[in-house]
Amino acid sequence: MLIIFDLIKKKIVIIGGGLSGLYLGYKLKKEGFSIQILEANNRIGGRIFTKKNDHTKVELGATWLWRYNEELIKLCATLQISLFEQNTKGDALYEASNTNLPERFQLPGNQEISYRIVGGTATILEKLSNDFSEDELQRNQKVVRIDDKENSIHVLTENATFTADMVISTMPPQLLVNTVDFSSQLDLNLLEIANNTHTWMKDSIKFALVYKTPFWKEKGLSGVGFSNVGPFTEIYDHSDFENSHFGLMGFLNAGLANETKAYREEKIRAQLFKFFGEAGKKYLYYDEKVWSKEDLLHVDNTNFLNPHANNGHPVYQQDYLNGKFIIAGSETSPSYGGYMEGAIYRGNQIVKQLKNKF
């Protein structure tokens, strides 16, 4: 009992209420640590964004997982979350140029199966955060400064100060080093790597369409489509597990980020007509998420970074500020960095590290 009592006194502040932060809070609380999660946004989830509308739920953020995502699948099993296969039955469509109509083709039969989460990806967030108190999970707490003290570490937000034994940041590294002030100078190598670490999802524009019926299935189509010319580059069936709500979801050309939503939708409607005829234009609902416009995801940076550049770099496997500061999050994971699986893998690393430390 004395060991447990000593552990409870160890206070961990986690910056960020996305998958990484919520998972760390969930695991550390189970291990007996005192935790507080500070989320800058008015919603939890980060790059998981299951949006509910009058018709159904659509995924405008992280959507799929695969059989080789062992840690994430294990978590889903623990939380009693069910998975279902992404529908790919039927022909796919491919648009090679503006001058030719999309061509039908069969998807390879041996491709890796993608899975979705019954009820939406946000189901993971709901299950992880179910037992957090209002004090343990606080929204609208944007961190602006971290002060390293002799026997503690302080986290300052725009409206409060939190004191802890250890701070774990799950912010994307580039966002962290450019938006948070530190009382002690961070390692220069860390700053260099962080500024050249690609942030997962920041280049994506995701869109979703809801339809009354899955008309594409009636045409022998899977709903899968690819285009060399855009505006959408990929599109997939987005009907729910119960097959009671029907939709399509995909990715837009990143070059459209600075256009208006109305402009993008107009261009999509024209492309839907090319792909599916008049039925493609008869959707009930359209929505989108331009992740490059999300201030709480990344900072403007003119440097081009290849996808997953410096994800899982060894510099993130160290602790800082006299052992009181750890940088976590999907981008820091040495396994599947920049994916949901990476967030869970890195979280497990840190939980093990803190159990050994304290």
Give structural notes.
Belongs to the flavin monoamine oxidase family. This is Flavin monoamine oxidase family protein. InterPro entries: Amino_oxidase, FAD/NAD-bd_sf, Flavin_MAO. It comes from Algibacter miyuki. Residues 92-348 form the Amine oxidase domain. It is a single chain. The protein is of the alpha/beta class and 358 residues long. The protein folds into 2 domains: 2-46 and 128-199 and 300-357, FAD/NAD(P)-binding domain (3-Layer(bba) Sandwich), CATH 3.50.50; 51-120 and 203-293, Polyamine Oxidase, Chain A, domain 2, CATH 3.90.660.10. It is built from 9 helices and 22 strands. It has helices at residues 2-8, 19-30, 70-78, 122-128, 173-179, 188-194, 215-218, 261-276, 340-357, and strands at residues 11-15, 34-38, 50-52, 57-59, 65-66, 83-85, 91-95, 103-105, 114-117, 137-138, 143-148, 153-157, 161-164, 166-169, 181-182, 205-211, 221-227, 232-237, 246-252, 285-290, 319-320, 325-327. The strands form 5 sheets. The chain has a 7-stranded mixed β-sheet. A hairpin with a 3-residue loop joins strand 12 (153-157) and strand 13. Helix 3 (70-78) packs across helix 9.
